Structure to design on (140 residues):
C-alpha cells in the first residue's frame, strides 16, 4: 500500500482475482486471502491518499473471493509490526491497532487447518486469546 497505484492494482486486485480463478479451475477448494483490517466498501480512505489504491484493490479482491464457490477465509490484520509474536490475538476488535508479523504468519498457518474459519473475514489485532481459540470462535 502507498506505492505506485498501477502496480498496486495489478498485484493486490488483478493478480489476486486471477489466482482465485486459477484455484477454481484447478478444483482447489481452500483459499486464504490476506487483506487488511479496514478493507471494505466503507474503507474511508480519501482518494488523494497514497493508500487509496491499496484499499480499493483489497476491497475488490475480497469481494471477488466472497462471491466465489471456494472454501474461503479472509484474514484482515491491523497494522503490522516487527514486535516479537505472542501467539495471541483479538479477533473481536472493532478498531484497528497493531499485530506482530509473526502472529499474522501463525494465524495464516492455523487458519488453513481450521474449518471454523471458512466463510469468515477475521479482523484481528494483538490480544489475549490464543490464536487457535480465536479462530474457533463463532464468526462475526
Amino acid at each position: 500500500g502507498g506505492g505506485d497505484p498501477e502496480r498496486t492494482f495489478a498485484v493486490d486486485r488483478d493478480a489476486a482475482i486471477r489466482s482465485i480463478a486459477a484455484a477454481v479451475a484447478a478444483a482447489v477448494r481452500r483459499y486464504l486471502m490476506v487483506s487488511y483490517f479496514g478493507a471494505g466498501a466503507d474503507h474511508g480512505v480519501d482518494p488523494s491518499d497514497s493508500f487509496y489504491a491499496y484499499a480499493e484493490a483489497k476491497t475488490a479482491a475480497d469481494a471477488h473471493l466472497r462471491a466465489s464457490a471456494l472454501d474461503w477465509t479472509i484474514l484482515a490484520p491491523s497494522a503490522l509490526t516487527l514486535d516479537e509474536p505472542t501467539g495471541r490475538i483479538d479477533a473481536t476488535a472493532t478498531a484497528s491497532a497493531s499485530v506482530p508479523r509473526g502472529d499474522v504468519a501463525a494465524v495464516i498457518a492455523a487458519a488453513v487447518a481450521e474449518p471454523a474459519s471458512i466463510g469468515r473475514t477475521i479482523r484481528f489485532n494483538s490480544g489475549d486469546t490464543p490464536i487457535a481459540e480465536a479462530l474457533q470462535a463463532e464468526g462475526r
Notes: The first helix runs from residue 5 to 25.
